[in-house]
Automatic annotation (TrEMBL):
Essential cofactor(s): Zn(2+)
Organism of derivation: Spirosoma taeanense
GO molecular function (one): 5-amino-6-(5-phosphoribosylamino)uracil reductase activity
Catalytic reaction list: 2,5-diamino-6-hydroxy-4-(5-phosphoribosylamino)-pyrimidine + H2O + H(+) = 5-amino-6-(5-phospho-D-ribosylamino)uracil + NH4(+); 5-amino-6-(5-phospho-D-ribitylamino)uracil + NADP(+) = 5-amino-6-(5-phospho-D-ribosylamino)uracil + NADPH + H(+)
Pathway: Cofactor biosynthesis; riboflavin biosynthesis; 5-amino-6-(D-ribitylamino)uracil from GTP: step 2/4; Cofactor biosynthesis; riboflavin biosynthesis; 5-amino-6-(D-ribitylamino)uracil from GTP: step 3/4
Matching Pfam families: dCMP_cyt_deam_1, RibD_C
Physiological role: Converts 2,5-diamino-6-(ribosylamino)-4(3h)-pyrimidinone 5'-phosphate into 5-amino-6-(ribosylamino)-2,4(1h,3h)-pyrimidinedione 5'-phosphate.
UniProt-recorded name of the protein: Riboflavin biosynthesis protein RibD
PANTHER family: 2,5-DIAMINO-6-RIBOSYLAMINO-4(3H)-PYRIMIDINONE 5'-PHOSPHATE REDUCTASE, DIHYDROFOLATE REDUCTASE FAMILY PROTEIN (AFU_ORTHOLOGUE AFUA_8G06820)
Binding site for Zn(2+): 53, 82, 91
Signal peptide: none
Gene Ontology biological-process annotations: riboflavin biosynthetic process
Keyword annotations from UniProtKB, A to Z: Hydrolase, Metal-binding, Multifunctional enzyme, NADP, Oxidoreductase, Riboflavin biosynthesis, Zinc
Binding locations of substrate: 191, 203, 211, 214, 289
Amino acid sequence: MSDRFMLRALELATLGRGHVSPNPMVGCVITHGAEGGERIIGEGWHQRYGEAHAERNAILSVRPEEAHLLPESTVYVTLEPCSHYGKQPPCADLLIDRCVGRVVCCNDDPNPLVAGQGFQKLRTAGIAVETGVLREQGRELNARFFTFFEQQRPYILLKWAESADGYIAGIEVRTVKISGDLSHRLVHRWRTEEDAIMVGTNTARLDNPRLNVRLVPGRNPTRIVIDKQLKLAGSLNLFDNSQPTLGYNYLKTETLGQTTYIQLQPDKPFLNQLLDDLYGRRIQSVLVEGGTTLINSLLEAGLWDEMRVFRSPMVLDEGVKAPVVRGRLVSREQVGVDELTVYKNSPGN
């Protein structure tokens, strides 16, 4: 029965996607009654960064005439209640103040500011705590959050479109629209859900992308461009100062409007330095829309977590070969005229 209510909490948590980073997505369901006869009396989710957390929203949703039931209720929450003061007061303290009867949770919080302290507070106050319910689903929900704290780097998502015969671009790197309109719209939705979006030098120069969100409502990600020798023209769309942009290079560190150039050391691995810097900037996820050079570099270094590949019915006959897919197949679906396959990185890839 606990799985049923935790699944609902996980479903609620997804409503915060694209709005709560760098916080995790969290959902909460409050039930009352004996096992087998439990009913939901409150539910909520973390809706936006800086605003109330899931537990507080769930408690606020309980009808005043049922507030007296909280000491006999179970709180299902997808992540360990926080134990520290940030933009909001500690959720563990709130649950203690409201004398809830039991707390059931998917995952411990990997953030060192919490890391078991929330559960300890609850247990010390005499509240029963059960953890590990739907643990894997909880980790999948917040894969970016867990990757950030456990691997100390952003979650790396590789995306590209390829023709039916395996080309990512036309001959002489000619720009060709490979994927269909529905796939293009879906990519814009993905952009709203990630902290940053990255391209390499060739893609920036040849495609002159804007890397913003236009086809759906949502926030623009931070743009990342690799330009080791600063050869890209300042007139490119990436440098129009319309949204935060990071330019990684070997020559200078400078900020011009919303564009920040970051100098890296040529005698150290470039990508590792770049990801270390992004970690320091609290960027938890990067959607890579670069060409084969950048994508293959990340693949060879093992610095990737997820791969989303559109395969179009278009045939190019010749051009730039697409990267070779690898990892564990997660899903395959039709998106308009295209087939979308998703892969996750696994040990040994």
